[in-house]
Amino acid sequence: MEDDPYAAALVTAERKGLYTVWLDGRELPAVLTGKLLGGAASRLDLPVVGDDVDVSLHDGGLKAVIHAVRPRSSLLLRKELGGGLDAQPLAANIGKVLIVMGLDGNYNIARLERLLVAAWDSGAVPVVVLTKADLCGPDELAEKTAAAGKAAPGAVTIRLSALTGEGVEKVEAELAGGVRCCVVGSSGAGKSTLLNRLAGREAAETGAVREADSRGRHTTTARQLYFLPCGGQLIDTPGVREFGVEYSGGGLDASFGDIAELAAGCRFKDCSHSGEPGCAVAAALEAGTLAPERLKSYGKLRRETERRERLSDPKKRLLAKRKLRAFGRLQREAEERKRRLRGGG
Ligand SMILES: Nc1nc2c(ncn2[C@@H]2O[C@H](COP(=O)(O)OP(=O)(O)OP(=O)(O)O)[C@@H](O)[C@H]2O)c(=O)[nH]1
Ligand SMILES: [Mg+2]
Ligand SMILES: [Zn+2]
User: Fold this and answer.
1) Which residues have CB under 8 Å from 115's CB, separation 6+?
2) CB half-sphere exposure, 48, CA atoms < 13 A
3) Which residues on adjacent β-strands are paired with residue 78?
4) Among 176, 171, 196, 202, which Cα is nearest to 98's?
5) 71-127: per-residue pLDDT in tens?
6) Which residue has the CA at smallest separation from atom 8 of ligand 1?
7) Do 236 and 197 meet the contact criterion of CB atoms below 8 Å apart?
8) Residue 203 CA to ligand 2 centre (angstroms)
9) What number does the ligand 1 atom closest to the CA of 218 have?
10) Of 282, 288, 286, which Cα lies nearest the Cα of 263?
11) Which of 10, 58, 242, 343 has its CA 20 to 30 A from that of 218?
């Protein structure tokens, strides 16, 4: 019987071209073949944490060489704002993305909206985890939780305190059945603290945030997959300041399901919600059931993704430009209406 030279392994960590793979119950250091590295058209072709890869073993089975990446069921991408065109893959084959946001100074709805688009685009399901509930008074807690829930229609929102343990079992329930999750969020949000809580040990280092603005100190520096006692897997990631969204189409409408639903009621199928008759979005703004800020966020992210799309498809350039101009007008009108209401109220 001939030995199969390749075995299937799971990428558990990646740092500057050096990998760790999980094979037969143990972790091994791994590198890429020159062929895999040289043949990659972009970094999307290279392994990331969560990837199933084909490896060969060397040095008496102590080292692995990665030959190929197997097809992925999901892929979380991050687009560096202002960077090149290439998106950075963060994690593969994940079932859920845990978007971690602190209820302290880390709280930021615009960032949450951005992370939600990326999460939906990945093919995984987002779960919003609001950490540091112990740092908020009851009114602030209720207000911030409600606002986050509104920004994340269609996603579960969990309030958590690593201090009191509130919400931990709810996060565990999301991991039940061996679900693989990736945590994302800015530095200091409490991602590694959550991991440690779920792991029941100090699996990863955590770091105090700056008093003045709750900013973290980039304690976690590499992506790493952990096997949890509850059966699930968690990929801890370094906090990122900027999280651009990569165009794919579905994520934006999934994240802004409330607006997409309204838009389905517009008289014209291609309604740009900028003054057309029978526009359900404009009607909702008028009725006050849709917040102008929400529409503004949607427009901003849409412009960002369409800008990227334009770069890749020049034929759509003209149409997109026209639509965007109209959209900007609607937003200005919404803002104006809000100002009038405030002034008159
Ligand atoms: N009071 C309180 N503090 C928390 C909670 N969760 C996290 N922290 C604190 O927040 C700080 C940052 O936590 P980390 O887990 O290191 O944050 P991180 O998201 O992993 O940050 P990076 O690794 O830099 O991306 C630490 O001092 C934690 O103790 C919580 O629920 N309540
Ligand atoms: Mg961390
Ligand atoms: Zn409309």
Assistant:
1) 97, 99, 126, 184, 185, 243
2) 25
3) 88
4) 171
5) 999 999 887 665 555 678 999 999 999 999 999 999 999 999 999 999 998 999 999
6) 190
7) no
8) 11
9) 24
10) 282
11) 10
